[in-house]
C-alpha cells in the first residue's frame, strides 16, 4: 500500500493560504476588540454621569472640579517649597467617591488638609497612598498606561517624587476658559479669565471650575448639548519640559491631583515616573496674547487629539489641557443629561467650543453635533 504525504510545494501553498487568512482575520479581530473597549469606555462615562446626578440630587449642584481655598488663607504649611502645590485642597473626584461606591476610601481622607499634606506639616504624606487607589471606572481600556501607579506612596519613598497618584482618562470640562495657576494674574490681563468659576465670563464658562456650583438649571444651552466630562487619556503624550534640563516622560492626569494648571514631573528615573497635570480639559485658550505673562502662541483653539504626541522641549504646554483619546478619529464625551457619545476630531471648532459652554447662547444646526 502506497502512502502519499505533502509535497514541499503543497506545504508552502497551505502555509501561504493560512498566512493570508490570518492577515485578513487579524484586523477584524483587532477592530472587534477595539469596539468592545469603546463600549466599555462609554459605559464608564455613563456611570460617571449617574454619580454626578446622584451628587446633584444630594447637594443641589454638581461638584466643583477643584475645591480651592482663598489665596493664603490658610497659609501653606511651614517649609513648603512652593505655595502653589498646597493652595488647592481636593478634586471633584474626591467629592464623588461616595457616589462611585468608594465610601470607605472617602472616609479615610482628612478633608481639613490638602491633597498633598496637612496644613501644618509639609512632610505629612498620608494622602499619597490613598490617592494611588486605582478606580477602574476612571480608566479607559484603550489608554496606553505604562503604569496605574504614579510617583511615590509617601511611605516607600523614591527619589524625585513630589506626589503620588493614580490616573484618570476622564476630565472635567472647563469650557472655553483655561484658568490660571498664579494668584492675581487675571486682574493684570484685561479681558482674560479670572480664577474662580463664578468670575468667568458666562459665555465661556463650562460646567466645572474652581469652586464651581453649577446646577442643571444653569446649563442654558441644553443639557443634551453641553459637555460635562470628556476623555483625556493618559499615556498618549510625552513631554520634555521647557528645556533640556527636564526629563522626557509620559503625561498622566491623576484623578486626585488638585493643583490644576500646575504640572510637573514626578518619579523621574523610576518605573512610576510621569509628567502630571490636573484632570480637566478645555476647548479654547482665551488668554490674550498681549498679556505680560503670555507668549504669543496662546489665545488659539484646543483641538481634540492634538498632534504631534511627542512634545519637544517648549513652553507651549497647550496639548496637556486638551481632550484626547486612544480611539481613532475622536473621543467620547459625557453630556450634562447623562448621555455619552463619540465626537469626531474633525468637528467644526466653533461647534466644539459651543457645546463646551453652558450659557453661550449659540445656535447649533441639526447634525452639526
Annotation keywords:
369 residues, alpha+beta, five-stranded mixed beta sheet, four-stranded mixed beta sheet, 13 strands, globular
What does this entry look like structurally?
- The chain has helices at residues 8-59, 92-96, 103-107, 126-131, 349-354, and strands spanning 66-68, 88-91, 150-151, 164-165, 170-173, 227-231, 238-239, 249-252, 264-266, 274-276, 280-281, 330-335, 340-344.
- With 369 residues, it is of the alpha+beta class.
- It has one domain (39-354).
- The strands form four sheets. Strands 11-5-6-12-13 form a five-stranded mixed beta sheet.
- The radius of gyration is 23 Å and the shape is globular.
Side by side, the strands of the main sheet go 11-5-6-12-13
Characterize the overall form: globular
Q: How many separate domains make up the residues? A: 1
- How would a textbook summarize the main sheet? 5 strands, mixed
Rounded mean pLDDT score: 85
Number of strands: 13
Report the uncertain regions.
181-186
Q: Using only CA atoms, what is the Rg?
A: 23 Å
Number of helices: 5
Helix percentage = 10-25%
Separation of termini? Answer: 74 Å
Q: What is the helix/strand order? A: HEEHHHEEEEEEEEEEEH
Q: What structural class should be given to the helix and strand makeup?
A: alpha+beta
- Indicate the proportion of strand residues: 5-15%
How are the SSEs ordered, and which strands pair?
Blueprint: H1 8-59, E1 66-68, E2 88-91, H2 92-96, H3 103-107, H4 126-131, E3 150-151, E4 164-165, E5 170-173, E6 227-231, E7 238-239, E8 249-252, E9 264-266, E10 274-276, E11 280-281, E12 330-335, E13 340-344, H5 349-354
Amino acid at each position: 500500500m502506497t502512502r502519499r504525504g505533502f509535497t514541499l510545494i503543497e506545504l508552502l501553498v497551505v502555509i501561504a493560504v493560512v498566512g493570508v487568512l490570518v492577515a485578513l482575520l487579524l484586523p477584524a479581530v483587532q477592530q472587534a476588540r477595539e469596539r468592545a473597549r469603546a463600549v466599555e469606555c462609554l459605559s464608564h462615562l455613563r456611570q460617571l454621569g449617574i454619580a454626578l446626578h446622584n451628587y446633584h440630587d444630594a447637594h443641589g449642584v454638581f461638584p466643583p472640579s477643584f475645591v480651592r481655598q482663598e489665596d493664603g488663607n490658610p497659609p501653606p504649611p511651614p517649609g513648603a517649597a512652593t505655595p502653589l502645590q498646597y493652595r488647592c485642597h481636593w478634586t471633584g473626584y474626591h467629592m464623588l467617591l461616595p457616589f462611585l461606591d468608594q465610601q470607605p476610601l472617602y472616609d479615610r481622607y482628612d478633608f481639613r488638609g490638602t491633597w498633598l499634606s496637612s496644613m501644618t506639616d509639609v512632610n505629612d504624606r498620608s494622602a499619597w497612598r490613598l490617592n494611588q487607589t486605582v478606580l477602574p471606572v476612571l480608566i479607559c481600556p484603550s489608554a496606553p498606561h505604562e503604569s496605574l501607579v504614579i510617583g511615590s506612596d509617601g511611605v516607600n519613598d523614591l527619589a524625585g517624587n513630589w506626589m503620588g497618584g493614580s490616573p484618570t482618562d476622564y476630565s472635567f470640562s472647563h469650557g472655553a476658559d483655561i484658568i490660571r495657576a498664579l494668584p492675581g494674574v487675571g486682574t493684570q490681563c484685561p479681558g482674560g479669565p479670572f480664577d474662580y468659576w463664578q468670575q468667568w465670563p458666562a459665555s465661556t464658562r463650562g460646567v466645572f471650575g474652581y469652586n464651581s456650583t453649577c446646577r442643571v438649571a444653569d446649563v442654558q444651552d441644553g443639557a443634551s448639548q453641553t459637555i460635562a466630562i470628556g476623555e483625556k487619556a493618559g499615556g498618549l503624550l510625552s513631554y520634555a519640559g521647557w528645556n533640556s534640563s527636564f526629563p522626557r516622560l509620559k503625561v498622566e492626569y491623576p484623578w486626585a491631583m488638585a493643583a490644576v494648571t500646575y504640572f510637573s514631573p514626578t518619579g523621574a528615573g523610576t518605573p512610576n515616573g510621569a509628567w502630571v497635570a490636573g484632570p480637566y480639559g478645555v476647548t479654547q485658550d482665551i488668554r490674550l496674547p498681549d498679556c505680560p505673562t503670555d507668549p504669543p502662541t496662546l489665545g488659539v483653539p484646543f483641538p481634540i487629539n492634538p498632534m504631534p504626541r511627542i512634545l519637544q522641549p517648549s513652553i507651549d504646554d497647550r496639548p496637556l489641557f486638551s481632550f484626547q483619546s486612544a480611539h481613532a478619529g475622536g473621543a467620547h464625551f459625557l453630556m450634562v443629561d447623562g448621555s455619552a457619545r463619540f465626537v469626531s476630531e474633525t468637528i467644526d471648532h466653533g461647534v466644539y467650543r459651543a457645546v463646551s459652554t453652558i450659557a453661550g447662547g449659540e445656535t447649533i444646526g441639526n447634525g452639526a453635533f
